[in-house]
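Take a record.
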Amino acid sequence: MRRAVLGSTGVQVPVVGQGTWQMEQDDRASAVAAIRAALDVGMNHVDTAELYGAGRVEEIVAEAIAGRRHEVFLVSKVLPDHATRRGTVQACEQSLQRLKTDHLDLYLLHWPGEHPLRGTIEAFEQLVKDGKIRAWGVSNFDVAELEEALTIAGPGRIACNQVLYHLKERAIEHAVIPWCQKHGVAVVGYSPFGSGDFPSERSAGGKVLQRIADAHGATPRQVALSFLVRDEGVFTIPKSSNAERVRENAGAGELRLSDDDVAEIDRAFPLRKPPRTLPVI
């Protein structure tokens, strides 16, 4: 599994991690087994949020990592509605209780909200000082919002920006990825398979993925993930509650696409014009 330093955390994590969005809808035993399978293959970047299942997914994660917390790079997120200075601290403490741990490796603001960002960042820094989080970052931030966060926090404090990124939605390549690379902020792409809209094997793009996969002894999904993490400082967190699929996802961390492969995928799934607003789910 290829690993890289995740922004200002200074910690090496796998370029392919484990997402948990909507995991509360899956069979709990299967979900727990899937997260454990991820750890078994070195995919120890586990991402969750208080939003997911209104905290139930954090409890699933807690069960999965019991006795293995030391192996995990654990990430959770605060809802914007909770992200006042005081509310952020309280939300973090509640997440820690549900996750049955004394600290998070990374804590994110889930998306920009109405509460002043300065208060949220002050809370993040207090949580770092108190040892409850190791680092903090943001999610669903466009360049203007990233600039505001940088102005408030100063350089080297924003660990990552977690954003929507898949073959059919590459908008972050226009400005967000370049900004993050310039400022040492990791990019973590969520929903890398398009939330149920992965290219079918009968589509033109699907046939391209299959052809490249066959040449590498891989699968189309592994090819897609490898394409998304082709640039330095970019990570991805596919969600699955199926242990076999988790192991397939992990295999993408070993796959190296050639320049010709990347060019062919780029033609099959071209970058569209910049949107007015940052795409989110």
